[in-house]
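We emphasize that the prediction below concerns an isolated chain of 207 residues; any contacts that depend on oligomerization or on bound cofactors are therefore not represented. The input was used exactly as deposited, without trimming of termini.
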Amino acid sequence: MKESIHYLLMSDHMLVQKALLGSIKESGLTLGQPKILDYLKDHNGCVQKDIAAGCHIEPASITVILRGMETKGYIARKSLGGDRRSLYVFLTDKGKEYVRYLNEKFDSVESIATDGFSEAFFKKICKNAGIPVQMFANRSDIAGGSTLGNISISHMSVHTVDIGLPQLAMHSAMETAGVKDVTYLREALEEFYNAKYVIDKDIVEIL
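Result of the prediction step, given as a token string:
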């Protein structure tokens, strides 16, 4: 089934939002607050209507969200030049700490192309071809390298998986490739291109 462009854009947005909110659930930040903190990072000291326009949030909703953020100490609203009709929104020190925290989470979400669906599909392909697979994950508190996959899927909405094939001296002398690694990758790709499968949203059936 061919999906429309607007559906794919909406789907991509929801997947990124779901991944981000899942990674920050222990922070106490609620829906709408992360994007406002991210906006204030580059527009600190702006007025409420600019935040609403920049974050695509309705004026009535932005008022409620900002009130909650002020209560939690993320922002402070101040009048400048004696004009009490306009309040300018500033990040507090606590807010700036959360911006740094969010930047790490944004980088994590945006630098990896693999999701649970594409991971499971690739493992199934390898299993059918009799190819061993080793899973790798970065520590959440240490930033790892990014991949080209996340750049690719920003231009076309396709299921993507990051595949690592270590090579001698690529990053360090500790990363060495086994004799069979290149052969395994070639056989996995052959299995993928020769396989017949049907993908319907998040369900895949290998025929």
